[in-house]
Amino acid sequence: MVKNRFGIEVTYKLAWEDSYSLLPRFLKALQQSNPGTVVEWFFKEDNDAGVYVRPNIKTFQRVFWAFRPSIKGFKFCKPLIAIDGTHLYGKYRHTLLTAIAQDGDKGIFSLAFALVEKECIAAWSWFMACIRKHVTQKM
Q1: Per residue in 56-87, pLDDT tens?
Q2: pTM higher than 0.90
Q3: Exposure b/e, 29-41, CB count within 10 A at least 16 = b
Q4: Which of 30, 49, 72, 100 gives the lowest tally of CB atoms within 10 Å of its CB?
Q5: Residue 75 DSSP one-character state
């Protein structure tokens, strides 16, 4: 599709390698085109004092996002949130976490999403804290 539309050959490998480096720009554009969208990043500081000292280097660990309509609409949903995670395969083995609720018509209402390093207690706790802070707005 990219080759037909723009005349550029994008290999599968290039698409994979560049995808995570584009994530900050993608989420910034998402916020600009959807005012009120919340994005929260979590980085791991690399203060490894091994052979290669890399002070103040931050490594991407997690990102959370929720759209403003989802945040505003949650108050009209049943006060129950369902969460789930799905593993991503390929070069980047992150996990996509999702949170949903049920609306007044008994339909699925998407609330929030997160891309985390793996499915673990720390990642789930962080995701739930972000939901509490940004979606339910209960600190």
Answers
A1: 666 778 999 999 999 999 999 999 999 999 99
A2: no
A3: eebeeeeebbebe
A4: 49
A5: G
